[in-house]
Every structure is written in structure tokens, then in C-alpha cells.
Amino acid sequence: MSDDLARLKEMRERIDALDEQLLELLSRRQEVVAEVVAFKKEHRMPVYHPAREADLIDERRRSAARAGLDPDCIEEIFRNIMRFSRATQTREIARVGVKPGARILLVGGGGAMGRLFSRWFRLSGYEVRILETGDWGRVDELCRGLDLALVTVPIAVTVETIEKLAPHLPPDCILADLTSIKQVTVRAMLENFAGPVIGFHPMFGPDAGSMERQIMVVTPGRERDEDGWVAEQFAAWGAVMVRSDPVEHDEIMAVVQALRHFATFTFGRFLYQQQIDLKRTLEFSSPIYRLELDMVGRLFAQDPELYSEIIYATPQRLELLKQYLTSFKQNLELLGTGETVASETDGRQAFIREFKEIAAWFGPFSHQAIRESSYLIDKLIDRF
Length: 384
What we know:
Elements: H1 3-43, H2 50-66, H3 71-93, E1 103-107, H4 112-123, E2 127-131, H5 139-143, E3 148-151, H6 155-165, E4 174-177, H7 183-192, E5 197-202, E6 215-222, H8 229-236, E7 240-243, H9 246-273, H10 278-284, H11 287-300, H12 304-311, H13 315-331, H14 341-362, H15 365-383
Parallel strand pairs: 1-2, 1-3, 3-4, 4-5, 6-7
Antiparallel strand pairs: 5-6
Helix pairs in contact: 1-3, 2-3, 6-7, 9-11, 9-13
């Protein structure tokens, strides 16, 4: 063997030895994770702590820069390590019932979301009962001794269902719902039931494999200290609990859900009307275009009834969407009349002024958005 090959072999052996040390350190880290799991089980603490993870990533990035390493690369490594750690914690904690043996009625439990929560509750040691359309004849039997009644039916029939269910519930039973609007549903629960009332809104769909890092919004109605076990259970499954009053919830959801879905629908509808060759555009597309088109395609691959419920849920949402379309019309002025070069130039300058003003309003979030979207784009490039 030549001296050069011998030297290369020796360097590779040193790398192998360092890799073994990394594996040993990861193993020792996992032992500490096991201690954390035991502690969180004992104290009923959530798996995911977003502030802790954000601080950790920021510190690792700074350490990487000081060590002459690529912060982006180090961030991805540590995100993978933390993802594995969370998965381990979730598997261990997810089946722990905060109030095992409690009796839970899922109204609409035969639906996709109902089946999801039914499985999770059963795995955690709860007694789960299902009330579907054909079961109202035995509603008193199903409600006997209940600890929690969770309404998970379409928005259009939620209030009607609450009014029908409430008279049959035990006075100490918690009445809750999973609907994506809260003012109307929380009000209906409070008006029709004298016991504890809580509103929940899971910010994920029935295809969620776990509740790890998923957002669950809590909108309190009429709570007692002892009713906190429901939110504690969701947190134990890995959810990030966000508290909000019903008014704030509905205002934010009008943007986060209704406006976003309608804007996506509008873009997809225009592509359809123009009969754009989608496959051909993908051959020329940048990763960001493909990502945007994926979001459009994702929308149209799902249930139109569900999205119509979200968009048409309240008059306030429809009013917001009308304002959005009015803004679209105002943007025509930025294009100029097209009659003269001057008018087009004026439109271009107006566009630049608007762009700068809006960019200033977005502020630091724009830099965060570049970082996050770049991560998604890199993943998309790796796949396609």
C-alpha cells in the first residue's frame, strides 16, 4: 500500500472512531431522555416545549458559528435529534391516561375526526362511547355516568346537536366540542347546559398520525379546576395548547383558515379557467412554485363540503373575503392603464412603493419566512 493510501486509510479510521463517539454520546443523551420521560409522566407535563426547543436551536447555531461549522447544517442535525427524542417521549407518554377509566361520549364519533380521538382515548385507558345519528333512541343510556361529552359533528349541525344532547347529560359532565368556530358553539353550550363547558379546536385533520407538536386551541366557557384533565390529556399526547377566548379565536381563524383556503381556491380556479397545462409548468417550475402548486392541489384533493363549511361558517368570514376581493380590484391600479408608457411606469413605481411599505410591516418575520421556506424548498429538491 502506498504512503498516500495508508494516510487516507488512517484518516478514515479516525473518522470512524469519531462516529463511534458520536453514537455513544447519542446513546447517553437518550438515557437522559428516558429520565425526562419518567419525570414528565409523573408530573403530567407536555412532550413538546416550543420555547425550550427554539432556544436550544438558537444556541446550537451560535455554537456552530463559533466552531466554524455551518449553522444551517447543525440546525438540521439537532432538529432530527430532537424529533427522535420527541417521538420517543410521545410513544411512552401517549398511552398514559390523565384520568384513566373516565367515561367519554364522542358525539359524531363515527366520523373521521371522531374515530381519531376514539382511538387515542381508548389507547389511554378511557371508556369510549359513540353517539351517531341512529343512536338517539338510547341517548340516556349512553350519557349515564359520563365524565366528558365531546361533540365532533359538522359545523352546520353543531348547535342543533348541542341543544339536543344537553338535557341528557349529568350535571358534572364536561360538555366540549371540536368545532372550528367558537363564539356560536360555546354560547350554545353555555345556554343549554349548566355544567362545565370547554371549547376545543384541533388545528389538524383526521389524517394526523399523532398529536405531537399539533396545535389544540382551548376556548374556556365555564371551567372548574378539576376540568383541566381534558387539556392535560391532549398535552400529554404531545399537543401544544393555545388558550383563546371565542371572539379572538374566530377573528384569527377567519384569516388562518377561511381567507387562506379561499385565496388558494381563487388561484386554483384561475388556473382552471385559463386551462393551464399544470404538468408542463412543473417542468419549468422553481421549487417555490411547485410548493405553492402543491398547496393548491392539496386543497382540491379534499372534501369540498368541509371547506365550504369553513369558508361560509359566519357572516364575518364572508365579509372578510369580500374585503379581500376588493383589495384585488384595487391592485389593478398598480398595473396601469396600458394606454401609455408613462402610465405603466407609474404603476410599476406604485408597485415598488407598496412592496416596500408592506415589507416594512412584515418586518423580521420575512427573514424567518425565508429561513423556513428555504428548508422546505431544500427538502422538495431532495425529493424531486
